[in-house]
Amino acid sequence: MKSLEECRARIDEIDNEVVDLLNRRMEVVRRVGEIKHESNSAIYRPEREKAIIDRLTKISESSGGLLNSQAIEAVFLEIFAVARNLELPERIAYLGPEGSFTHQAAESRFGAMSDYLSLGSIEAVFKTLEASRAKFGVVPIENSRDGVVGETLDLLGKSSVKIVAELYMPIHMAFATKAEKIHHIKRIYSKDKGFGQCREFLTEHGLDVVEHIPVESTAKAAILAAKDPEAAAICSHIAAKLYGVPTLFENIEDTHNNATRFFILSDFKNGISGEDKTSILVRLKDAQKAGALVHFLEDFNNADINLSKIESRPSRDNDGFGYWFFIDFFGHIDEPKIQSLIQKHADEVTWLGSYVKGEL
Ligand SMILES: O=C(O)C(=O)C[C@]1(C(=O)O)C=C[C@@H](O)C=C1
Q1: Domain 270-356 falls in which CATH fold?
Q2: If exposure means fewest CB atoms within 10 Å of the residue's CB, which of 86, 186, 342, 360 is most exposed?
Q3: pLDDT digits (tens, 9 = 90+) for 263-318
Q4: Check: complex ipTM more than 0.85
Q5: What's the CATH superfamily of 176-249?
Q6: EC number(s) in its UniProt entry (predicted)?
Q7: CA neighbours within 13 Å on the CB side: how many for 209?
Q8: 42 Cβ inside 6 Å of ligand 1
C-alpha cells in the first residue's frame, strides 16, 4: 500500500494531466464559440450536454469506475459552465435575492463562475430577458407541496421568452438564528410557505407561540434575522451562510420529499434530444362547449403522446369565465406526429418551449 505522501504525489501528477486535458478541451470549445458566433447560434445546448453526461456515465459504469452518474453530472456541469463562459459570457437573471432557492437552482446549472443578476420579482426576470439585458432567466414553476406558481404561468402566456430547460431541486429548510438560546427568540421570519412547511418542527420546539412574520422570500428572512439577535429565519442553509446567521437545525421541513421545479428561460429553440418535454398554452375556441377540452386531449391520446401536466388558468380577459390550459407532454415540438397535432390546433396553441426532461 502506498503512503500518504506517495498518494499525494500521484494525485498531483494526475491533476497536472487533468488541467492539461481541460485546457485542450477549452481550446476546442473556443473554436466552437467562433463557429457559433459566425452562424449566430445558441451557446447553451442542454440536449448536447445531456448526451455528453449520458455517454460518460455509460463509459464510467462499464469500466467499473468510481464516478456514478451524479458525480459525472456534478463535475461536467461546472466544466460546461466554464466552457459557455469562454464561448460568450452570458448573464443569468434569477428571482432573488441572493441565496434564494432560485439562486441555488441557477448556480446548479450555470456554475459558480457566471455573471448573475438578482431581481426582485418573476415579472422583472421576464422583462429583463425581453429587453435582452440577460440571456437566461431562472424562475420557479411549481412546488411538490404548494402547487403551481401562478405568476410564472401567467407571464409565460404573455411573453415571447421560451423555456429552454427544466430542473428539479429538493428543497430543505434550515432554522437559523443569532440568539444564544431558543427561548430568547421573539420572532421568526420566513416566506409564508416556509412556516407552512415546518409546522411540526415549530410546535415541537415551542416556537409556534412566538410571532411569525411572513416576508417576500426566505433569503430576505435571513437578511432580517442577521440584524436582530432576538429573531430567527426559516430559510435555505445557503442563505443563512451567505448572510452570516448560524444554522441551528437543518432539514426542518415536515416532509422530506419537498421539491421545486424551475424553468430556465431564453430566446432559442433546442434540438431534439430524444428525451424531451414540451410545454404549450391552449386557448380553446369553444371552451364553453361541453367536451372541447376532452376532444383536444383525445388527439393527444390518439397520437400516443403522454401528458405529464395540465393546469387551468382563468384567462382574465373580458370573456367572463374563460380559461386557458397549460399542458406539458413528452416529446419535442419538431417531431412529425407532434407537428401534425399542433398544426391541427394552430389557432389555439402557443408553444412555450421544448427541453430535455429534468430529473429529481
Ligand atoms: O457543443 C457545443 O455546442 C458547445 O458549445 C460545447 C459545450 C461543451 O462544453 O461540451 C458547451 C456548451 C453547450 O451547452 C454544449 C456543449
Answers
A1: Alpha-Beta Plaits (3.30.70)
A2: 360
A3: 999 999 999 999 999 999 998 876 666 677 888 889 999 999 999 999 988 876 65
A4: yes
A5: Periplasmic binding protein-like II (3.40.190.10)
A6: 4.2.1.51, 5.4.99.5
A7: 6
A8: no
